[in-house]
């Protein structure tokens, strides 16, 4: 990596703190809820189909997930489900919104090492209120110059972010767990990107192909980035 990096952006969910395991726990509860109608794996498939159909309407985050659970209940049951199933789906979503923040290993130490040397940014997808709450509860706010809660992470979204930060792509490094959202779009616009794999990845974010690029680095943990700067 070149030594011209001035701005380092971090994805939040499953990069700074635990997120996807909580969603998977919630989905398992939901699948059990509907097992009188379909096998659990089929309920999971139906829920994912609903999420993909509605992504352009709801975006990313727990609230969209809740609406998709309710829609899936209606479709799977043919509109005959008892309303207590809808109430339980709403409770599952509310419980998800109130999960404690569990920082991933090495996050605080890495941010402490980078603080003052680089402009640090959070660049994450999700629901505005939920992500603001998580950031506040994480205790990490003090490290960041700017927080960007993005509706999506396509090339145009990163260009908009860089323009707002008055930062050139060659001076920008993005760290995240999703090749699809955190890595590929940044490489496409000429930035640098570091992938930190997480043991659980949402199906929509999975990327199976090997990636080779002069601006790309693969890390085993977040603190490994310090060796590349």
TrEMBL record:
One family name in Pfam for this protein: Hydrolase
The entry's keywords: Hydrolase
SUPFAM superfamilies listed in its UniProt record: HAD-like
Gene3D superfamilies per the UniProt record, alphabetical: HAD superfamily/HAD-like, Putative phosphatase, domain 2
An annotated Gene Ontology molecular function: hydrolase activity
Alphabetical list of CDD domains matching this protein: HAD-like
Record-given protein name: HAD family hydrolase
Species name: Chryseobacterium indologenes
